[in-house]
Design brief:
The chain is of the alpha/beta class. It contains 14 helices and 21 strands. It has 2 domains: about 180 residues, Flavin prenyltransferase-like (Rossmann fold); about 210 residues, CoaB-like (Rossmann fold), CATH 3.40.50.10300. About 45% of the residues are buried.
Length: about 400
């Protein structure tokens, strides 16, 4: 994706050191990060850390001429695709609410027309103070976006609201805002992920090896390209992606119901989940005790989701096979009348389950197969979404 510019404003909260990790994560996401630090922030974390992570000089004072951004506050405000204040103190919130501009950061904030995202971090009493809450409401009415604060242990040793939001959550919200003008802006995309668990009894279940990484990567990539994303996720250890509506399900039946609801006005459905084909016909109400040497289960077919959900403009399926990969995938593509299918070989020496990479074929409605090299799942997600975009644009 093309380079995007974020001006990262770092203020004098003890959480300022966490902004270094945030700057790193943004840089890894191909975002150019230009850091502006208040004088108080420089007492808590060094400028060199941000300079080393981002590759750009750090701006701290209004009239320094060592920085390529002169006049800094105007150049920075015009260059920004997003202005992110993380962490944001009660002091900076008060200044913004009053329209004060007494340092480089506040001047930049006042001059920008870019969207502003604020990640507050302060002691609970300061966050809950009526003045701070009034300032937050004022800024929200002006269109500023907020993420956090979280509830948890504070630097003071106390516990409560005011903790800096998780970096992954701030990152996700920043990327969502940056993607508003992306090539999937205005599109509604439903993505399924992870496996399903079909209960045998209240303790045991039938499941599979899917971790959900591929589906989560697709959901995040679609979000970053401007789509309105709903992620229907089976059980997984992965953290919820920020900026994405998530429906948590357990069974194939629950996943079908959630996808039907989500697809009512969707533009595309991408079925990356590994949905159980069979489920125990009569799950036991109580835990089964160890008894005979054999336990026989009667299994019933689950309803096929792609067969049941056909009224979506673009539908993408996945085929996980151990033999005749292309032939089996083409049969599935034709039988379900899909627009695209992603075929994975799960029987080789490097199965995709739990891995951060995947090697796949993309097969379109004509049956033509494009072989892709082994790619990070996030990169494969963008390749799939490139196809989805083209299919939507052609309709």
């Amino acid at each position: 994706m093309s380079e995007r510019n974020v001006v990262l404003g770092v203020t004098g909260s003890i959480a300022a050191y966490k902004a270094v990790d945030l700057a790193s994560k943004l840089t890894q996401a191909s975002v150019a990060v230009h850091t502006v630090m208040t004088e108080s922030a420089t007492k808590l974390v060094g400028e060199a850390s941000f300079r080393a992570i981002t590759g750009f000089p750090v701006s701290t004072r209004m009239f320094e001429l060592t920085n390529p951004h002169s006049i800094e506050h105007i150049s920075l405000s015009e260059a920004a695709d997003l202005l992110l204040i993380a962490p944001a103190t009660a002091n900076i919130l008060a200044k913004l609410a009053c329209g004060l501009a007494d340092d480089l950061l506040t001047c930049t904030l006042l001059a920008t027309r870019a969207p502003i995202l604020v990640a507050p971090a302060m002691h609970t009493a300061m966050w809950e103070n009526p003045a701070t809450q009034a300032n937050v409401k004022t800024l929200q009415t002006r269109g500023m976006n907020f993420v956090g604060p979280a509830v948890g242990r504070l630097a003071s040793g106390g516990h409560g609201a005011g903790r800096f939001a998780p970096v992954a959550e701030i990152l996700g919200e920043a990327l969502r805002i940056l993607g508003r003008s992306g090539d999937l802006a205005g599109r509604r995309i439903v993505v399924s992920a992870a496996g399903t668990r079909e209960p045998i009894d209240p303790v045991r279940f039938l499941g599979n090896r899917s971790t959900g990484k591929m589906g989560f990567a697709i959901a995040e990539a679609a979000r970053d390209r401007g789509a309105d994303v709903t992620l229907v996720a089976g059980p997984t250890l992965l953290g919820r992606p920020s900026g994405v509506a998530v429906a948590d399900v357990q069974t194939a039946s629950e996943m079908l119901g959630a996808i039907k609801d989500a697809c009512r006005d969707a533009d595309a459905l991408i079925m990356a989940a590994a949905v159980a084909d069979y489920a125990p016909a009569s799950p036991a109400a109580q835990k089964l005790k160890k008894g005979e040497d054999e336990l026989l289960l009667s299994l019933s077919r689950t309803e096929d989701i792609l067969d049941a959900v056909r009224d979506v403009p673009v539908r993408v399926g996945f085929a996980a096979e151990t033999d005749d990969l292309i032939g089996s995938a083409r049969k599935k593509l034709e039988a379900k009348r899909l627009d695209l299918i992603v075929a994975n070989d799960v029987g080789g020496p490097n199965p995709p389950f739990g891995s951060d990479t995947n090697q796949a074929f993309l097969i379109d409605a004509t049956g033509e197969a494009e072989e892709l090299p082994r790619l990070p799942k996030r990169e494969l997600a963008d390749r799939i979404l490139d196809r989805v975009r083209d299919l939507l644009d052609a309709r």
